[in-house]
Amino acid sequence: MSALIVLLPPDPASASAEYQYVVTTDGVAADSHGSAQAALLPLPRRGGTEVVAVVPAAKISWHQVVLPKGSTAASPRLRSVLEGLLEDQLLDEPEALHFALPPQVRSGVPVWVATCDRTWLRDAMQALDAAQRPVARIVPEFAPQGESVLHALGDPQQPVLVLAGGEGVITLPLAAQALSLLPSLPEATRCVAEPAVAALAEQVLQHRPELQQAPQRWLQAAQSDWDLAQFEFSSSGRARAMKKIGTAWADLLAAPQWRAARWGAVLLVVLNLVGLNAWAWRERAALEDKRVAMRQILTGTFPHVKVAVDPPVQMGKEVAALRQTTGAVSSRDLEAMLGALSSGPLPQRPAAAIEYSSGELRVRGIASNQDEAEPLMSALAGQGYNAALQGEMLVVTKGGTP
Q: Where is the GspL cytoplasmic actin-ATPase-like domain (predicted)?
């Protein structure tokens, strides 16, 4: 996943607000990171790169509710339902908050609901839009999912401890006095700390934490299934689908993990081109062999023909000339065609007229409709003649070999 990941500033958006960011081409490793105003954030270097906004842990709160039966993510009354369920849990007025639900919403079971200041989020999105960095997804810095992990972050002057896992997300000051507010945790609970507060975290937690830079944490946040762009912040289904298709196509074209697939596709195209050329060469060779054989048959049968231009036509002319010389009857001659006509079923009425011209025999009066002519036409077809009824005229011509 190629992405520009932007951490939203906790203060209200302004022209001078600084955004911390990470640029990645594969969604795993950070190509670059830093801090800049919205208008100076890196521009996507290739098509399909999406902008992902990360909501800081301090700007979001989590609540667990049970949705009533029949509630779905597409329900137009879902926000009203959430406002009613959370009314007693919220410190702010529900109208001032933005709500977001997990990717899979089911009624009748506990689900987590994320809330944050609606005006703050709208201003941040508008600032990025104005800077030509429209946000495709909004993800939380931490989400209540997976195994519980303790995160120590911030700076030594204002260190923060965040517990994130299946039991929710809790944000507290990184101090020994705050540990009593945490739920009971196993001894093997994983601890992760930014380098600036790693020593303090080890002192408070009495456990050596793993080191993790903030950009790596935002990369992990961008891989979350959560998308807070819901309700008024959601894009249309068509826009989301087109964005996903564009991102997937761009990743396929440039992402390192797809390098083997790209080489395989190129190799497959090359092999197909080579195969098609080999097949075409073989077909051309077979066709040329047939042409040579036809020329040999013509010159071998009629030695006086020195040049074979169109062997089938020349062969037909030579056979016709030979037949005329020997007096043999051709299947296109009047005698042969009348013989074929007389060998079939006897017509129900006598012929009124017979016309012959250039291999075409016309007989009038022996059939007045298709049903009467059908037996005779079938018999003629069995002898290699084509017959068609045109009004009361039966037209007979030489066809293929029976």
A: 30-210
Nearest to 49 by CA among 21, 19, 24: 24
DSSP structure string for 118-163: HHHHHHHHHHHHHTT---SEEEESS-S-SS-EEEEEEETTEEEEEE
Instruction: Give the DSSP H or E segment for 20.
Output: strand 18-24
Long-range contacts of 40-45 (CB under 8 A, 24+ apart): 41/4, 41/6, 41/128, 41/131, 41/133, 42/4, 43/132, 43/133, 44/2, 44/4
Q: Listing from the earlier edge strand, what are the strands of the sheet with 353-357?
A: 353-357, 360-364, 393-398, 385-390
At 13 the pLDDT is 84
Mean model confidence pLDDT for the chain: 86
pLDDT the model gives residue 380: 85
The 10s digit of each residue's pLDDT in 237-257 is 445 445 555 555 555 555 566
Helix H segments across 162-258?
Answer: 198-205, 214-222, 237-254
pLDDT at 254: 57
pTM: 0.61
Please give the sequence-ordered ranges of beta strands (E in DSSP) within 25-73, or none if there are none: 32-37, 50-55, 61-66
- pLDDT above 90 for 187: no
* Contact by Cβ (8 Å): 159, 197: yes
Six-digit token string for 126 = 């508008």
Taking the C-alpha atoms of residue 134 and residue 38, their distance in angstroms, rounded to an integer, is 11
In this structure, what are the phi and psi dihedrals at residue 15, rounded to the nearest 5 degrees? Answer: -65, -30
Task: Indicate the SS3 state at residue 361.
Answer: strand
Residues 367, 355: contact at Cβ < 8 Å? no
Give CA–CA dist 42/50, Å, rounded: 12
Q: Dihedral of CA 297/301/303/307: which sign?
A: negative
